[in-house]
Specification:
By secondary structure, this protein is of the alpha+beta class. The chain has one domain. Helices cover about 35% and strands about 20% of the residues. It has a 5-stranded antiparallel β-sheet, with helices on one face. Strands 2-3 form a two-stranded antiparallel ribbon.
């Protein structure tokens, strides 16, 4: 006569553990996509607020912010001096921050992986009129989901393995 067995067999426990593992990986993937979408939405809102600030500045002063000399090409992070972006080769500028302070409540931050091209700040580019043609003002921004030219209002494409970058034409 067999004793009354209580509990589960090893096979039953392994099957339950495998099912739990599969379900948790599906949930983790869905949460990751939701996080990326939320971050990209915040980045687009930040970009839109900077574009609005630049246009308000233009409306008040008749030109976009520059280095103080309108003939200089001006390519800076939207950050205070001492902070870098664009893979660490572009610096922030206090003059740019001071010029935009009345129009921006806070400076936007990308919260991207350090070492990527525009990893922590948006990049502002001012090019004056010259012999090659009229000047222009651009804003470099990024997101994790793919971008196309219709979302960008300028050239877009993959600049590294993680993020999509966009040059947003502001005007001149």
């Amino acid at each position: 006569m067999k004793e009354d067995q209580r509990g589960f067999t090893l096979i039953e426990l392994l099957v339950v553990i495998a099912i739990i593992g599969l379900l948790s990986s599906i949930i983790f993937a869905a949460l990751t996509r939701a996080r990326i979408t939320a971050e990209d939405s915040r980045r687009r809102q930040n970009k839109d607020s900077v574009v609005t600030a630049l246009n308000l500045y233009y409306n008040d002063y008749g030109h976009f912010p520059n280095s103080g000399n309108p003939a200089d090409v001006y390519y800076r992070c939207l950050a205070p001096s001492g902070e870098t972006c664009y893979a660490g080769v572009k610096d922030g500028d206090d003059l740019l921050i001071t010029n935009l302070a009345p129009y921006l409540r806070t400076l936007p931050v990308n919260n991207a992986i350090p070492g990527t091209i525009a990893y922590n700040r948006l990049v502002y580019e001012y090019s004056p009129d010259d012999a090659n043609g009229p000047g222009s003002v651009w804003l470099l921004w990024m997101q994790e989901n793919p971008l196309d030219d219709s979302q960008c209002n300028g050239p877009s494409g993959i600049e590294d393995t993680v993020y999509w970058y966009c040059y947003q034409y502001i005007g001149f």
